[in-house]
Amino acid sequence: MNRDSLDGVVSYLAEEGLKVVTAESCTAGLIASTLAEPPGCGAWLDAAFVTYSEEAKIDCLEVDEAIIDTYGLTSEEVARDMAEGALALAHANLGIATTGVAGPSAGNGEEPVGTVCIAWSFKTADGIHTFTEKLKFDGSRNEIREEATVYALENIERQHHKLRTVAGQEVTEE
C-alpha cells in the first residue's frame, strides 16, 4: 500500500474516531502491520488476531464450528464471525477480518486460489453492523495477501458510509 493511500486511511480513522481490531487468516497480520506503520498508530489500532487454523478461529474468536461446517473456511459467514468475535474481545469499534486462499495451491479445494472474504464490523449504539464481500484476486501468494490488505483498508470509508446509509447510526467511541 502506498504511503498516500495509507495516510488517507489513517486520517479517516482518526477523524471518525474509529479504532480497529483485526482478525486475519490469509493476510496473516498484514492489515495490522500496515496500520502500525505510521507513528501514533495507537490512536487507530487496538488489537490484532492472526487465526490461521480452523482451531484458532474457533478457540480464539469463538467462530461457530457449525458455520465453518456449513459454509467452509473461505466464506463471508466465517469472515463475519471472525470480525464480530474480535470486536467482542477488544476495545475497538471497527473489526476487520479476512479469510481466504492465498495459494500457491487451493489447499482443501473448497475455493480457488485468490478467493478472499473480508468483513467490516462496526460497533454502534444499537449493536454490531457487519458488511462482507467475497473477492477474487490474482497473482502470487504474497501479491494476493497485499491486494486483500489494500482492499480491506481502502474500503473502510465506503463500508462506514454504507453503515450510515443502512443503519443511520454513528459508531460508538471506545
Automatic annotation (TrEMBL):
Pfam families: CinA (PF02464). Residues 9-158 form the CinA C-terminal domain. InterPro entries: CinA-like_C, CinA_C. Gene3D superfamilies: CinA-like. NCBIfam families: PncC_domain. This is Competence damage-inducible protein A.
